[in-house]
Design goal:
Length: 246
Protein backbone atom coordinates (compact mmCIF):
# COMPACT_ATOMS: atom_id res chain seq x y z
CA UNK A 1 0.00 0.00 0.00
CA UNK A 2 2.79 2.40 0.91
CA UNK A 3 4.47 1.84 -2.47
CA UNK A 4 1.29 3.02 -4.22
CA UNK A 5 1.43 6.35 -2.41
CA UNK A 6 5.19 6.90 -2.82
CA UNK A 7 4.84 8.72 -6.19
CA UNK A 8 2.29 11.08 -4.61
CA UNK A 9 4.38 11.64 -1.48
CA UNK A 10 7.39 12.40 -3.68
CA UNK A 11 5.52 15.37 -5.16
CA UNK A 12 3.43 16.61 -2.23
CA UNK A 13 3.78 17.04 1.50
CA UNK A 14 1.14 15.55 3.79
CA UNK A 15 -0.25 19.03 4.49
CA UNK A 16 -0.58 19.79 0.77
CA UNK A 17 -2.45 16.53 0.20
CA UNK A 18 -4.87 17.13 3.08
CA UNK A 19 -5.56 20.78 2.17
CA UNK A 20 -6.09 19.94 -1.50
CA UNK A 21 -8.53 17.15 -0.64
CA UNK A 22 -10.46 19.33 1.81
CA UNK A 23 -10.76 22.10 -0.79
CA UNK A 24 -11.96 19.70 -3.51
CA UNK A 25 -14.42 18.06 -1.11
CA UNK A 26 -15.81 21.42 -0.01
CA UNK A 27 -16.24 22.72 -3.56
CA UNK A 28 -17.96 19.53 -4.76
CA UNK A 29 -20.18 19.18 -1.69
CA UNK A 30 -21.31 22.83 -1.73
CA UNK A 31 -21.99 22.74 -5.48
CA UNK A 32 -24.04 19.57 -5.20
CA UNK A 33 -25.92 20.87 -2.17
CA UNK A 34 -27.06 23.93 -4.14
CA UNK A 35 -27.98 21.77 -7.12
CA UNK A 36 -29.53 18.80 -5.28
CA UNK A 37 -30.75 20.35 -2.02
CA UNK A 38 -29.79 17.03 -0.38
CA UNK A 39 -27.05 16.96 2.29
CA UNK A 40 -26.41 13.21 2.32
CA UNK A 41 -26.01 12.81 -1.44
CA UNK A 42 -23.91 16.00 -1.60
CA UNK A 43 -21.49 14.68 1.03
CA UNK A 44 -21.20 11.31 -0.72
CA UNK A 45 -20.48 12.98 -4.08
CA UNK A 46 -18.03 15.28 -2.28
CA UNK A 47 -16.02 12.32 -0.98
CA UNK A 48 -15.97 10.65 -4.40
CA UNK A 49 -14.87 13.90 -6.03
CA UNK A 50 -12.22 14.43 -3.36
CA UNK A 51 -10.48 11.16 -4.25
CA UNK A 52 -10.92 11.22 -8.02
CA UNK A 53 -10.41 14.98 -8.25
CA UNK A 54 -7.18 14.99 -6.29
CA UNK A 55 -5.69 12.40 -8.63
CA UNK A 56 -6.89 14.09 -11.84
CA UNK A 57 -6.81 17.79 -10.99
CA UNK A 58 -3.84 17.95 -8.62
CA UNK A 59 -1.60 14.88 -8.95
CA UNK A 60 -1.52 14.27 -12.73
CA UNK A 61 -0.67 17.90 -13.67
CA UNK A 62 2.11 18.02 -11.04
CA UNK A 63 3.42 14.63 -12.19
CA UNK A 64 3.39 15.75 -15.82
CA UNK A 65 5.21 18.97 -14.95
CA UNK A 66 7.91 16.99 -13.10
CA UNK A 67 8.29 14.50 -15.96
CA UNK A 68 8.74 17.28 -18.52
CA UNK A 69 11.28 18.96 -16.26
CA UNK A 70 13.26 15.71 -15.89
CA UNK A 71 13.34 15.19 -19.65
CA UNK A 72 14.89 18.63 -20.03
CA UNK A 73 17.40 17.71 -17.34
CA UNK A 74 18.27 14.56 -19.29
CA UNK A 75 18.86 16.71 -22.36
CA UNK A 76 21.22 18.86 -20.30
CA UNK A 77 22.96 15.70 -19.06
CA UNK A 78 23.50 14.41 -22.62
CA UNK A 79 24.78 17.80 -23.77
CA UNK A 80 27.19 18.00 -20.82
CA UNK A 81 28.44 14.46 -21.41
CA UNK A 82 29.13 15.20 -25.07
CA UNK A 83 30.95 18.41 -24.20
CA UNK A 84 33.21 16.79 -21.62
CA UNK A 85 34.00 13.77 -23.80
CA UNK A 86 34.88 16.06 -26.70
CA UNK A 87 37.13 17.97 -24.29
CA UNK A 88 39.15 14.81 -23.63
CA UNK A 89 37.50 13.49 -20.45
CA UNK A 90 36.99 9.74 -20.19
CA UNK A 91 33.45 8.44 -19.61
CA UNK A 92 33.60 8.17 -15.81
CA UNK A 93 35.04 11.66 -15.40
CA UNK A 94 32.50 13.02 -17.88
CA UNK A 95 29.72 11.50 -15.78
CA UNK A 96 31.10 13.06 -12.61
CA UNK A 97 31.46 16.47 -14.23
CA UNK A 98 28.08 16.33 -15.97
CA UNK A 99 25.99 15.74 -12.85
CA UNK A 100 27.01 18.90 -10.97
CA UNK A 101 24.10 21.18 -11.89
CA UNK A 102 21.42 18.56 -12.52
CA UNK A 103 18.30 17.59 -10.59
CA UNK A 104 18.98 15.31 -7.62
CA UNK A 105 16.95 12.48 -9.16
CA UNK A 106 19.09 12.50 -12.30
CA UNK A 107 22.19 12.73 -10.12
CA UNK A 108 21.19 9.54 -8.31
CA UNK A 109 20.87 7.69 -11.61
CA UNK A 110 24.24 8.98 -12.79
CA UNK A 111 25.76 7.88 -9.47
CA UNK A 112 24.45 4.35 -10.11
CA UNK A 113 26.22 4.36 -13.48
CA UNK A 114 29.42 5.67 -11.91
CA UNK A 115 29.20 3.00 -9.20
CA UNK A 116 28.94 0.27 -11.85
CA UNK A 117 32.02 1.59 -13.61
CA UNK A 118 34.10 1.94 -10.44
CA UNK A 119 33.17 -1.38 -8.85
CA UNK A 120 32.59 -3.70 -11.80
CA UNK A 121 33.93 -1.79 -14.82
CA UNK A 122 30.45 -2.17 -16.36
CA UNK A 123 28.51 0.69 -17.96
CA UNK A 124 24.99 0.29 -16.51
CA UNK A 125 22.33 2.65 -17.82
CA UNK A 126 19.21 0.46 -17.72
CA UNK A 127 17.85 2.46 -14.78
CA UNK A 128 17.33 5.42 -17.15
CA UNK A 129 14.62 3.40 -18.94
CA UNK A 130 12.11 4.52 -16.28
CA UNK A 131 11.95 7.96 -17.94
CA UNK A 132 10.42 6.45 -21.10
CA UNK A 133 12.65 8.68 -23.22
CA UNK A 134 13.74 6.70 -26.33
CA UNK A 135 16.23 9.36 -27.47
CA UNK A 136 18.22 9.12 -24.23
CA UNK A 137 18.17 5.31 -24.51
CA UNK A 138 19.79 5.64 -27.94
CA UNK A 139 22.33 8.05 -26.47
CA UNK A 140 23.26 5.41 -23.89
CA UNK A 141 23.56 2.71 -26.56
CA UNK A 142 26.08 4.91 -28.36
CA UNK A 143 27.80 5.59 -25.03
CA UNK A 144 28.18 1.83 -24.64
CA UNK A 145 29.85 1.66 -28.06
CA UNK A 146 32.16 4.50 -27.00
CA UNK A 147 33.02 2.62 -23.80
CA UNK A 148 33.62 -0.72 -25.55
CA UNK A 149 35.52 0.28 -28.69
CA UNK A 150 36.12 4.04 -28.45
CA UNK A 151 35.59 6.50 -31.28
CA UNK A 152 35.32 10.19 -32.02
CA UNK A 153 32.86 11.74 -29.57
CA UNK A 154 31.65 14.46 -31.94
CA UNK A 155 30.78 12.08 -34.77
CA UNK A 156 29.29 9.52 -32.38
CA UNK A 157 27.02 11.80 -30.37
CA UNK A 158 26.14 14.63 -32.76
CA UNK A 159 23.09 12.87 -34.21
CA UNK A 160 22.07 11.46 -30.82
CA UNK A 161 21.88 14.96 -29.35
CA UNK A 162 19.89 16.18 -32.34
CA UNK A 163 17.45 13.28 -31.79
CA UNK A 164 17.04 14.29 -28.14
CA UNK A 165 16.30 17.89 -29.14
CA UNK A 166 13.88 16.73 -31.84
CA UNK A 167 11.97 14.44 -29.47
CA UNK A 168 11.62 17.18 -26.85
CA UNK A 169 10.33 19.66 -29.44
CA UNK A 170 7.77 17.14 -30.71
CA UNK A 171 6.66 16.32 -27.15
CA UNK A 172 6.19 20.03 -26.44
CA UNK A 173 4.16 20.47 -29.63
CA UNK A 174 2.00 17.46 -28.71
CA UNK A 175 1.51 18.81 -25.19
CA UNK A 176 0.37 22.21 -26.46
CA UNK A 177 -2.11 20.65 -28.91
CA UNK A 178 -3.56 18.35 -26.26
CA UNK A 179 -3.75 21.16 -23.68
CA UNK A 180 -5.65 23.40 -26.12
CA UNK A 181 -8.09 20.58 -26.86
CA UNK A 182 -8.50 19.85 -23.15
CA UNK A 183 -9.19 23.51 -22.36
CA UNK A 184 -11.94 23.65 -25.01
CA UNK A 185 -13.60 20.53 -23.59
CA UNK A 186 -13.23 21.89 -20.05
CA UNK A 187 -15.10 25.06 -21.02
CA UNK A 188 -18.00 22.97 -22.35
CA UNK A 189 -17.98 20.80 -19.23
CA UNK A 190 -18.00 23.91 -17.04
CA UNK A 191 -20.97 25.31 -18.96
CA UNK A 192 -22.91 22.07 -18.46
CA UNK A 193 -22.32 22.30 -14.70
CA UNK A 194 -23.19 25.99 -14.51
CA UNK A 195 -26.63 25.56 -16.11
CA UNK A 196 -28.25 23.85 -13.05
CA UNK A 197 -26.82 26.58 -10.79
CA UNK A 198 -28.18 29.31 -13.05
CA UNK A 199 -31.62 27.72 -12.98
CA UNK A 200 -31.39 27.36 -9.21
CA UNK A 201 -30.81 31.10 -8.69
CA UNK A 202 -32.57 32.68 -11.68
CA UNK A 203 -35.61 30.42 -12.02
CA UNK A 204 -36.10 29.26 -8.45
CA UNK A 205 -39.74 28.21 -8.74
CA UNK A 206 -39.14 26.26 -11.93
CA UNK A 207 -36.08 24.53 -10.43
CA UNK A 208 -38.00 23.75 -7.21
CA UNK A 209 -40.64 22.07 -9.35
CA UNK A 210 -37.88 20.02 -10.99
CA UNK A 211 -36.45 19.00 -7.59
CA UNK A 212 -39.94 17.96 -6.50
CA UNK A 213 -39.50 14.99 -8.81
CA UNK A 214 -37.35 13.59 -5.98
CA UNK A 215 -34.88 10.84 -6.79
CA UNK A 216 -35.34 11.32 -10.52
CA UNK A 217 -34.10 14.91 -10.32
CA UNK A 218 -31.29 13.96 -7.96
CA UNK A 219 -30.29 11.08 -10.24
CA UNK A 220 -30.17 13.26 -13.35
CA UNK A 221 -27.96 15.85 -11.65
CA UNK A 222 -25.69 13.21 -10.15
CA UNK A 223 -25.29 11.53 -13.55
CA UNK A 224 -24.36 14.89 -15.09
CA UNK A 225 -21.76 15.56 -12.39
CA UNK A 226 -20.26 12.03 -12.48
CA UNK A 227 -20.13 12.14 -16.29
CA UNK A 228 -18.04 15.33 -16.07
CA UNK A 229 -15.82 13.71 -13.44
CA UNK A 230 -15.22 10.69 -15.69
CA UNK A 231 -14.57 12.95 -18.68
CA UNK A 232 -11.99 14.86 -16.62
CA UNK A 233 -10.26 11.57 -15.85
CA UNK A 234 -9.94 10.65 -19.54
CA UNK A 235 -8.85 14.18 -20.51
CA UNK A 236 -6.07 14.29 -17.93
CA UNK A 237 -4.81 10.81 -18.83
CA UNK A 238 -4.77 11.74 -22.53
CA UNK A 239 -2.86 14.95 -21.75
CA UNK A 240 -0.29 13.04 -19.69
CA UNK A 241 0.50 10.63 -22.57
CA UNK A 242 3.19 12.48 -24.51
CA UNK A 243 4.89 9.49 -26.07
CA UNK A 244 5.51 10.35 -29.72
CA UNK A 245 6.66 6.83 -30.62
CA UNK A 246 3.95 4.17 -31.02
Amino acid sequence: MKNKFNPILALFSGVQIVLSMIFIFAMAAVYNYFVLDNVVVSVIIGFITMLVGFYNIVYIPRKLKKERYLLNELQKYATNMTFYMQSGYNIINSLKASKRDLDKEIKKDIDLTIEGLEKDAVLRTVHFNKYNFPAIDIFHQILQVKYDVGGNSKSLFSKANKNINFELVKRDELYRRKRQFKNKIMVMMGMSLVIPLMLRFTAGELYAAFLSLGYLAIGLNVVLFIANLISMNFLQKALADLNIIN
